[in-house]
Amino acid sequence: MFAGYRLLSFxxxxxxxxxxxxxxxxxxxNLPVLEELELTDCQWNWFISxxxxxxxxxxxxxxxxxxNDDQCYNEDFPSYEFIFNIFAPNLQSLRYTDIxxxxxxxxxxxxxxxxxxxxxxxxxxxxxxxxxxxxEVLEKLSNVKLLKISGETFEALAFLNHLLTNWPMFxxxxxxxxxxxxxxxxxxxxxxxxLRISPNLETIVIxxxxxxxxxSTDCGWTPGMVPQCMxxxxxxxxxxxxxxxxxxxxxxxxxxxxxxxxxxxxxxxFSNLSAVQQNKIxxxxxxxxxxRSNCIxxxx
Length: 300
Prior knowledge:
Elements: E1 9-12, H1 21-29, E2 36-39, E3 51-55, E4 61-65, E5 83-87, E6 93-98, E7 103-107, E8 114-119, H2 130-139, E9 146-149, H3 151-156, E10 175-178, H4 190-196, E11 203-206, H5 228-232, E12 236-242, H6 246-258, E13 264-269, H7 275-287, E14 296-299
Parallel strand pairs: 1-2, 2-4, 3-5, 4-6, 5-7, 6-8, 8-9, 9-10, 10-11, 11-12, 12-13, 13-14
């Protein structure tokens, strides 16, 4: 219907129902110069059509977001049985915020520069292969320079040491940001193992505090465990919503001890902390010894 028009940007804020996968493929094939596409408040229903096919050779920005309210989901037709099939060889930026689909087919994702992935749960029971889906999606993003990921999605990776041999290296990744709570303790090696395959990482941002056992003291790394990025490239660490739990303090200790070229560490207190609590945490932070770096710590 749009043939002959130079439509560069398109944002859906209406309800569109496609009863066959070919309809979406045909629709996007008529938008050959489309560069930006936002699909918002999406509710996917495999009973109507089990696949969304996007073929847009000029597409540079793609955003897919589901409803913010779990009441919007239909339990009889869970969207995780849906499949995304995306052919966008010039895609540079990808954002996905919804519960996991059954599969994501990304053809030629080499041009991707940044990605944001947030698999929502909303209490919806997920299939046993959910962890596998999260792993497959992240594997396809190995060329990105900037990666934003929810802590819940990251924990679903459940890295095991023997799996690392089959994973691609994230050589281009310089900025890693967690947009929700994440665990950084030694018991859960997901973070450590991901840093190992991100050798050129320069910035880590933990935006919403820490998840898991907040009394954990198990966060120290032995010399042989320290990732290459910590030794050679990591320059900036931001810890936001900092509450002063032992796991958080030990994370600070690990960074200061092992990140040899670290220049700045920015710590922003959790907004509900009183002045007395902040002063107490400050005293603990000051006592943490630094390693070889001349890191400047900024506490906000």
